[in-house]
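Quick entry between incubations.
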Amino acid sequence: MLRQVAACAAILGVFAAMPAPAQQKSVKIGFVSTFSGPTAVIGNDMRNSFELALDHIGRRMGGLPVEVIYENDEQRPDVGRQKTEKLIQSDRVNFVVGYIWSNVLLASLKPVVDSQTFLISANAGPSQIAGELCSPFFFSTSWQNDQTPQAMGEYMNQRGVKTVYLIGPNYAAGKDMLTGVRSTYKGKIIGEDLTQWPGQLDFSTELSKVRAAKPDAVFVFYPGAAGVQFLNQYAQSGLRGQIPLYTAFTIDSLSLPLQKDLALGVPGTQHWVNDLPNEANKKFVADFRARHKAYPSFYGAQAYDAANLVNSAVVAVKGNLDNKDGMRNEMRKANYASVRGPYRYGNNHFPIQNFYLQDVVKDAEGNLTLKTVTTIVKDSQDQFHKVCPMKW
Amino acid sequence: MLLVLEQCLNGLQFGLLLFLLAAGLTLIFGIMDMVNLAHGSLYMIGAYLAATFVAWTGDFLIGAVIALGATLLVGMLLEVVAIRPLYGRDHLDHVLGTFGLVLFFNELARLVWGPAGLRVPLPDWLNTAVPLLPGLAYPTYRIAIIVTALAVALLLYILVMRTRLGMLIRAGASNREMAGALGVNIKLLYTVVFGLGAALAGLAGLMQAPILTVQIGMGENVLILAFVVIIIGGIGSIRGAFLAAIMVGLIDTIGRAFLPDLLKLVMTSRGAATVAPALSSMMIYLVMAVVLVVRPQGLFPVAGK
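Done. Structure below.
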């Protein structure tokens, strides 16, 4: 009995010794991305762009200094969730930003929104979060996965592609991408392969099936290093030049230095290209190039926007981070200078925005880079917003 | 029909590549009783060295040959410096020690070559497809891999079965103490075997380099498959590794190629497209499980062990 009382007293003592929650002195942001393994280049590009955005706003938001904690999800849903829970429970961050991979984001969403912390996805846009899992604490500064391939489906219609073969990785985003093409493409889909992700890097089996199926075109979605491998093997199989390739998120400024000439003439669609002629984008691209001697990628552009979206919210409530309704209302206006140009938010907090056709060209110094060719879709909204019960 | 033939070639090519990796692994395991998780790192080092030397010399073949020699040296050096102290300890220590080496090599690659990965460009004459039969064009480079790997398998067979060194290796594999007692320099033999294994892994890595990009951690996925191969084939058996590797390569490829169509007969095409890749990546492990239950010593174990 005495021992139990002593134990209780000890526990109470620990509680008493804990400091009372202090007045908020900084804006704490947790940033979850991939910083190791073959896709670390993407995470680094996002971090570099996020840091650049913070430097541009003087590393203060609404009068408070900004503190960022970077966490590595290792491209694994279980690790991503664990790191996210750590940010929420022990670091008590005000915002969680980042997430390249849809499967990592899906695993990490619940602990963040349940704790009424804002989550800003700077890349992944799984259909589930646009639909039934939509949350007042979730915002996207990228796109819903289906949108970019939907634009590519439209472009393939314009080009009169009669039959297509779809290839992508077997995970949440891969399935969304192929669904996206299917929803707008009017020709016939004569074959479809989902490959093991991220383990499978040799696509000989799938390319043999493509050769046998003889489609008019092939559509692929392979983000990161897998996009380099796919283009390599496409050329080695002799299919390059025979069957045109259409892509989403397969050619970007991070993969281009490795894909080189193999990417020439391969179209892609994107909501942001480094040459979009708005002032915010010119400043972002010029300063990024001056600092890192390379073009920023769309991943970076989305991270840059995420920092500015968070800033707009904190400024609107004058640094009172407990005013979550105020911050949400401000973010819903998308009232900041996005590098993609002005956009609106749908009821599910995904952007309603334009999608462009991009092409690979050589810049003045002979480096390969991406260029906007034309606008494919104006003010595109994802097809899942109707399933989202949130209204405002 | 042509598609089946083409997919068999794909499977054969994949299997032969696995054989190169598994042959070294099985030699090291069978002769030195050493569990070497760092074998995948040697595969990665081979690929990185190939990327470096191909870029330096500007010629794919010359670069590849230099890289092969360099990987052999790296392997022998690694044996002397890091592997030797692990002999005589139990397998758990081997796993721990060589896992540390995996982390070391990954970090080394990041420091030396950066995190972005490298691409090895193929010369134009290899970067095309050649018609094998009317209507069947096959990538030249993959044919080159098949030919090279078969030649290496033949050389390895001659080395192990027809030379004095091979005799020592076989003696070491079947009874180490006895071979040592008969005056065989076991220390040197171990270094040579480890170097040979490293060179085989490096060859696999550098041949894969133009197909995949060279990147950190590239050896880890394929190492698991190599372990599956030596378990199916029988530990220590080169012949077993050869047959099991081709079997695994064919099962994996044929599964990926035809399982979706088979599944479509019994379920919706969307469902089949989702289930098939998961099921086909499981198939080789199912085969391994069956082998472990029915014939735990492997399908083609070394005689007299």
